[in-house]
Amino acid sequence: MNRPAPDWSLPRVFAHRCGGALAPENSLSGLRIAAALGFRAVEFDVMLSADDSPWLIHDETLERTSNGSGRVCDTPDSALRSLDAGSYRHASFAGEALPTFDQAVRLCRELGLMANVEIKPAAAFEARTGEVVARRIMDLWAGGPLPLVSSFSVVALEAARRVAPRLPLGVLWTRPPADWASQVEMLDAYSLHCAWDKLDADVLKIAQANDIPVLCYTVNDRSAAETLFARGVAALFSDRIDLLIDM
Fold it and tell me: Known catalytic residues?
């Protein structure tokens, strides 16, 4: 296997969805808070708008994390730019804009943050999202360390691999399936990502024997984090980064 890897060492903790529970998820405020707390790596989700532009948002619809409505993939950039994506978290974040992928990447580079970019395609847009995000990554991170790129969608990862062969990829599952190792090999993926409470001891043993880092989400308890590190998990994603600052 070729297995392109990040040209930066994995941190032990990634700020989940930019700043975890301390900021609106997938926000520029979250990136700033994570950096201010001393974290050097963040994770965020990327989805395409109706104009084929990549934006930071987790859900296929706008209602939960903004004052908008409808599907992201049906909403033009002009409408996305007008949204308040902060008030749902706290009044102090009122007026927080939904960030474009370009804005987030530029701020990451300004703050010295490494990133795990999760490709989050809307249904039927898996391949297209993988292609667009991979191309933007190669442009926006030109001359710098490339991010780790993950997804639950193998189709999106295959598309990203086709257009950007050097990208480090992480394959995401809730619980790794029986054929997880063959899928990692097929994609020349670098890492395996899964829910922290669904990590089987045999999966971890096989991954370690093959030098495949295992990254677990979403770990919001310090004792759980300590146990996972003791088992040999490489890194964690956390919403409660304030509880894991010194890990």
Answer: 16, 58
CA distances to 11, 126, 176, 237 from 47, rounded to whole Å, are 25, 10, 23, 20
C-alpha angle 221/99/174, rounded to 5°?
40
Please report, rounded to a whole number, the percentage of residues in the chain having pLDDT higher than 70: 100
Q: Has residue 126 got a pLDDT over 80? A: yes
Question: How is the chain split into domains, by residue range?
Answer: 13-243
**By the 8 A CB rule, do 39 and 58 touch?**
no
Alpha carbon distance 44, 28 (integer Å): 11
How far apart are alpha carbons 149 and 169 in whole angstroms?
A: 5
Q: What's the CATH fold of domain 13-243? A: TIM Barrel (3.20.20)
**Per-residue confidence band for 2, with pLDDT thresholds at 50, 70 and 90:** confident
